Amino acid sequence: MFVVRFPSLSMRIAAFALSFTGFVTVGMRRLRRIHALAACTMFLALPAVAQPSWNDTLAFTDGSFGEMSALLEKTIFKVDVLMLRIRVDSLAAAKIKAFVHDDSVALAVIDAKDILAEIRFLREINLSQFLDGIDDDMKKAVRAGLLDEDSYQEIMGGLPEVFSFLDERKIQDGDCISYRVHADTLRTVYRDTLGTVLLDQVDIGRQRRQSVIATFLTPGSSFRKNLLRSLPDASN
User: Which one, 4, 33, 147, 222, has the greatest CB density within 10 A?
Assistant: First the structure.
């Protein structure tokens, strides 16, 4: 004969409490997962810091006053080292056309909101030669008041590490550097002869953009004279 025993009241209460605790535990785990998912969704929805595209040319004018170029020659034999090309937005181009004096033209380029400066190397050079040229022009920008001394020390001190991939490889004929400026954002992209990107770096701050653009156009720089000469005569 089998006897069926029903659980006592105390046992039923204990079982209910245990099942309720389990339900709460599972519910809390699900709630935590929902919160975590929501947090990830919110993070993904946050706007990223705007980074200018190094090859986006929509911001630039096709007019002749929106573009300048300079060939850099070195040594007494006039060896072609690199070609620099600078493009600016339409507002800066209009200012350049209106200005007469070289200083005003240079400042209109330096202060442009959108700038694309591209260097194409025309021969092999080593990293130290490249950095020496940058250092020389950057010091001139400091003396002209276009770059402050602290920024010069910080930026110049970090360039050997930034371009360390060139230490053994060296700069090759056909390599390119693109400096894309939008407001106070500077994006630097280094590509080899095959178009492979070897460096893609974004820096934020007025002095960061000045360390590149201002050094091209500071009085006495390696490029200023030829850059300004490449512009058409506004009186024609």
Answer: 147
Please list the residues that pair with 199 across neighbouring strands: 190
**Cβ–Cβ < 8 Å for 180, 212:** no
pTM: 0.75
Residue 110's identity, in one-letter code, is I
Instruction: Dig out the tokens for 33 from the structure.
Output: 């997962």
Question: Can you give the pLDDT at residue 58?
Answer: 60
Separation of alpha carbons 232 and 236, rounded Å: 8
Contacts of 160 (CB under 8 A, 6+ apart): 127, 131
CA distance 203 to 185: 6
DSSP-based three-state secondary structure for 61: coil
Chain mean position to CA 82: 21
Cα 109 to Cα 202: distance, rounded to the nearest angstrom: 20
Helix ranges, 75-125 (H): 90-98, 102-110
91: enclosing H helix or E strand? helix 90-98
Q: Over the stretch 136-192, which tens digit does the pLDDT of each residue have?
A: 999 999 999 999 999 999 999 999 999 999 999 999 999 999 999 999 999 999 999
Is 135 within 8 Å of 235 (Cβ atoms)? no
In sequence order, what are the residues at sequence separation of 6 or more whose Cβ sits closer than 8 angstroms to the Cβ of residue 71? 80, 82, 83, 84, 226
Length of the chain, please?
236
Residue 227 has pLDDT above 80, yes or no: yes
Q: Which two tokens stand for residue 136?
A: 């020389």
Q: Which two tokens stand for residue 94?
A: 């209009």
